[in-house]
Amino acid sequence: METKSIMIVGVGGQGSLLASRIIGNVLLSQGYDVKVSEVHGMSQRGGSVVTYVKYGEKVYSPIVEKGEADIIISFEMLETARALPYLKKGGKMITSVQQIDPMPVITGTAEYPDNLVEKLKSAGADVTAVDALTLAEQAGTAKASNVVLMGVLASKMDFPEEVWQNALEQCVPPKFLELNKKAFALGRNV
Amino acid sequence: MKKLMLGNEAFARGLYEAGCKVVSSYPGTPSTEITEEVAKYNEVYAEWAPNEKVALEVALGASIAGARSFCGMKHVGLNVAADPLYTASYSGVNAGLVIAVADDQGMHSSQNEQDSRHHAIASKVPMLEPSDSAECKDFVKLAFEISENFDTPVIVRMSTRVAHSQSVVAAEDRQELELKEYIKTPQKYVMMPAYAKGRHVFVEERTNKLTEYAETSPLNRVEISENAEFGVITNGAAYQYTKEALGDKASVLKIGMVNPMPVKLIQDFAAKYEKIYIIEELDGIIEQHCRNIGVNNVQGKEIFGYIGEIPQSVIAEKILGEKKEFVSLDENIPVRPPVMCAGCPHRGLFYCLKKLGVTVSGDIGCYTLGAAAPLNAMDTTICMGASISGLHGFNKARGAESEHKSVAVIGDSTFMHSGMTGLVNIAYNNSNSTVIILDNSITGMTGHQQNPTTGKNLKGDPAAAVNLEELCKAIGIKRVQVVDPYHLAETEKAIKEELAADEASVIISRRPCALLKYVKHNPPFAVDSEKCVGCKACMKLGCPAISVKDKKAVIDHTQCVGCGICQEQCKFNAIK
Fold it and tell me: pTM to 2 decimals?
């Protein structure tokens, strides 16, 4: 099979590392060759954060470039818009509608663009927009919005439910497992 | 069992499996996790040293004592450790000594983009370069064998992409090794001229033998494609990009041993094709080697340049003329640069420096973000420790005019790394300089590593803690005061006092990093929109939790940790 590419974007501290580990775990259990590329260091401090997950029979490059992503998962609207050029023709976007102002908006030198979901759709993107933050708070903590989005992702991929549950069990510390399973289910049923 | 591992984690697994016993490193992105991961194995002694020079000397000492040893660092760290490296090349080893150096093509988290292969060439030390996690593990094990067989330290060159990408690795068992016998051999280990002359002869002979080894080593691999019309010679992460972009359109010679490189292997490969592309990131070292050995049908740097990464899109476009289609929004999308976290103790200090309009000699760490808007409170950042020594030079050049309005800022870990010696220079050479140590009780930017000031070692066990106040006094600084940067007025007063003083002084701005697990946060603050007049005084702090909506300040309760500096800043009592 042709190598598939998933891109996870968000703001440093939103939990993209856990999301990438869950996806990586699922894909590896299905017998694929997998590569996951993370960003550490300077970029983690509240900046744009990008993680790549690639899978197939044999994966070479760990990175995803413009026009290559089959699926883009985003934790934040502005980052979704920034990631659009990476979407492959016919690819899917799953985004939280959460908005976090970047420093140029905070300091007033730039404006946060409005109606981004509509704009992305009219640019031809297949967008699923989810209020992941509210769903995560329903599950028990705002921090679980990454796992809500994993639930949404699961509904768009053809892997059995138990594979995702196993991945959650292996990637999430036991004391947060129930909470995260709830968040996952809320995303799964969007 | 097969498992996804970061390149750094696989590297650590390789150290473990190879029977490595002693590890000493200094953290630096993207190398840090190698040492953090290997510290999880109880069979391995692992420590953070105050800097890379110390770390490499520790590892060399352990090697001479008969234990397989390791030292890890980022590319600029090898500059600090260059002194022991160049002579360890002469002394050679007893048990194997492996050094990891992680380059940062694309400068994801570094102050320069130097190519560490130059150090390997200049020190005449062999260098291996893996291109994925499985190779990280295999190459480390091979590196120990090469080290012992050829009596040399071996460098394994990592890169951001190899270090921080996960790929599939099969873990194997550890090879438990006895300590090698230590035999006193001054001709080998006492590098004074009489003995070093003999060892230089040995080093040159060793390089010849290593070049022979490179001809047939499994580290260098030819992958012939029947359909290929041209060949590619490549190394490291660029190998993966090459395979992705070109598939079976190219035959590939993958160089896994980047120093010394084979001769005949390259000549034979290049003779098969009319055209050979050299795809190597940063400098043209393989390309130059090709020309040196009479292989001239190569093209590399003239196509790909010297800057940044060479991902698959660039290779596909430059060689095949193919470009991927994509769409983008016709919209200005504001950039999102990294910022100091909400509650970061550095914020209050930098706000005061900005307010006072002082010249700030900066250093390497999270606080380098003080250079960004809206604080803009940094004038220079060069390398570890340069804030203090650079300020001294600045003040010697400009005299009193500068002394009373310039400071150096340096973190606790960076101060221990190489700031102390600069402070000794200030005391010894009598400069009226003001140094601010930003003591957040951790090495922050690289992801929370312990250091000699924190009272804990790499394994998290209690350790001796350097007392910064007493240390500065012992160095000869009489004026030392400690402030809490969450209190703006107190901090500003201290800076004014020390700038006005007519002798050298140190301010320790002390408050643990807000991200540390043991730090208890206050409840988040909120803005009383009745009282907020929209003056935006709070916005000058550059806190990511504060924004303005409908001309009133708003605090994001999910980010705010209740540090309270915005409350101190608000003249209208609107923040509660």
Answer: 0.97
**CB < 8 Å to B542, chain A:** 103, 106-107
CB A73 within 8 A of CB A7: yes
CB-based burial label for B91 (10 Å; 0-12, 13-18, 19+): buried
- CATH code for the domain in which residue A130 is found: 3.40.920.10
State which residue of chain B sits closest to A23, comparing Cα positions. B4
Domain boundary among B287, B305, B320: B320
With respect to residue B152, please indicate whether it lies within any of the assigned structural domains: yes
The enclosing domain of B272 has a CATH number of 3.40.50.920
Q: pLDDT tens-digit profile of B146-180?
A: 999 999 999 999 999 999 999 999 999 999 999 99
Question: CATH number, domain at B433?
Answer: 3.40.50.970
For the cut 90, the answer to whether the pLDDT of residue A20 exceeds it is yes
DSSP state string for B93-109: -SS-EEEEEEE-TT-SS
Predicted complex ipTM: 0.95
Q: What is the pLDDT of residue B114?
A: 98
CB contact under 8 A, B333 and A59: no
Work out the average pLDDT over B555-565.
Answer: 93
Cβ-based contacts of B326 with chain A (< 8 Å)? 66-67, 84-87
- If asked whether residues B88 and B49 sit together in one domain, one would say yes
Say whether residue B537 is in contact with chain A using an 8 A CB cutoff.
no
Q: Choose the closest CB to B329 out of A110, A111, A123.
A: A123
As beta bridge partners, residue B156 has B100, B128
